[in-house]
Amino acid sequence: MTSHIMPTYARQSVTFSRGEGAWLWDSEGRRYLDAVAGIAVCSLGHAHPAVHEALCRQSKILLHTSNLYGVELQAQLADRLIALSGMDNVFFANSGAEANEAAIKIARKYGHQRGIDNPVVLTMEKSFHGRTMGTLSATGNSKIKQGFAPLLAGFSHVPYNDIPALEAAIAADGNIVAIMAEPVQGEGGVNIPAADYLNRIRELCDRHNLLMILDEIQTGVGRTGKFLAYQHNGILPDVCTMAKALGNGVPIGACLARGKAAEVLTAGNHGSTFGGNPLACSAALAVLETLTGSGLIAQAAEKGEKIHAALQQALAGNPHIVSIRNKGLMIGIELDRPCAQLVGMALAQGLLINVTADNTIRLLPPLIIDDAQIATLTETLAALIQDFSR
Ligand SMILES: *Cc1c(COP(=O)(O)O)cnc(C)c1O
After folding, report:
1. Is residue 155 lining ligand 1, measured as CB closer than 6 Å?
2. What is the pTM assigned to this prediction?
3. 185 Cα nearest atom in ligand 1
4. Distance from first CA to last CA of the chain, Å, rounded?
5. What is the DSSP code string of 72-123?
6. Where does pyridoxal 5'-phosphate bind (predicted)?
7. Pocket residue to mutate for ligand 1, from 129, 131, 191, 239, most atoms within 8 A of Cβ
8. Is 1 inside a domain boundary?
9. pLDDT at residue 159 greater than cutoff 70
């Protein structure tokens, strides 16, 4: 089936041919409940009419002109993102890794402006920032770096959710120019930090004149119950990256900057052929309009609580559950053993789930998931986990 595709993924043996809302159908016509949403991408569900209409409309008018010229929809999308985020400006890319590359370049040039010739960005252990050489170097997971040395210099890793470790790293190295973190670590195992973690990072960055970079590629666009996860903390970062759900499946990434960070990159410093083209921007505008006009973001918090409570109740007393945790619709169920097998077991029952960091079931259902689907998800999954861990 995939013999001419480079084997970079361990794929499940299923191919989907159609989707609608939270449902997918495979090439044999079997139906699946999608609690992965393309890894936090299809938050409005599959085949959403607003996205469909935007793409049809725009594909008839104009797909691409180049960033050599003004792009009206890009300007409109930037205005919407700025209004929703509290940031000052945006660079558009085509993926999460690319958005993070822009963030890293901002941090480095900001360092050079401060007279630091070898700027270092502090990132977290168990973090995930992408697969390009720069973002792979930023990532705090030695398993996925294996075989790709030499990695880029200029990154230093500290434990996540550990403010004293950050303080010590800053004190030990005068070349540090930025702290980069995910508000909740996704790939790393749905790791939710202390409630004031981001506030403490903000304070450290202010005190030491560092840029605070938040990778909201997975947490952003409403997934945690706020448009951006930092909005739970009442702070603003200096740089924030988004991608995944921004286009509901149409590739688009964004690097947002504020204040001094918004002034770092100038003409000729960075670019992208496709970044922010009219087609991608039309999809993202439709996504933002639908999300903000619907109450779906606030509901993400409620639905997340509902799923958490249902799983907690169904799995109460199971000694193999280490923890069930969530921030909105980013949900992790950590077991005391590797549980990647559960993905195939769930698939056989018509349910799509993900396992990350070996031991943690990760659920990223679409924000449009309804009560009946939540019941199906939690009942099916709880039964599977009971079976598996017996
Ligand atoms: C998915 C992800 C990325 C990488 O995004 P790509 O679009 O795959 O390049 C980076 N950071 C986080 C937190 C992610 O979840």
Report:
1. no
2. 0.98
3. 13
4. 35
5. HHHHHHHHHHHHHH--SEEEEESSHHHHHHHHHHHHHHHHHHTT-SS-EEEE
6. 96-97, 128, 215-218, 273
7. 129
8. no
9. yes
Joined tokens for residue 87: 């940031």
- Closest atom of ligand 1 to 95 CA is 7
The whole domain housing 265 covers: 51-292
Q: Assess contact for 286 and 76: CB atoms under 8 A.
A: no
Q: Is the CB of 243 under 6 A from ligand 1?
A: yes
Cα–Cα dist 179/168, whole Å: 13
Q: Is 215 annotated as a binding residue?
A: yes
Average pLDDT score over the chain: 97
35 with 166, same domain: the answer is: no
- Total structural domains within the chain: 2
Query: pLDDT tier at 390 (50, 70, 90 boundaries)?
Result: confident
Residue 7 belongs to a domain: no
Query: Strand order of the sheet with strand 360-363?
Result: 321-327, 330-335, 360-363, 354-356
Q: Using CA atoms, how far apart are residues 329 and 297, in angstroms rounded to an integer?
A: 10
Please name the residues in contact with 42: beta carbons below 8 A apart, sequence gap of 6 or more: 19, 34, 245, 248, 249, 366
Check the annotation: does 131 bind a ligand: yes
pLDDT category at 3 given cuts 50, 70, 90 is confident
- Asked if residue 203 and residue 260 are part of one domain, the reply reads yes
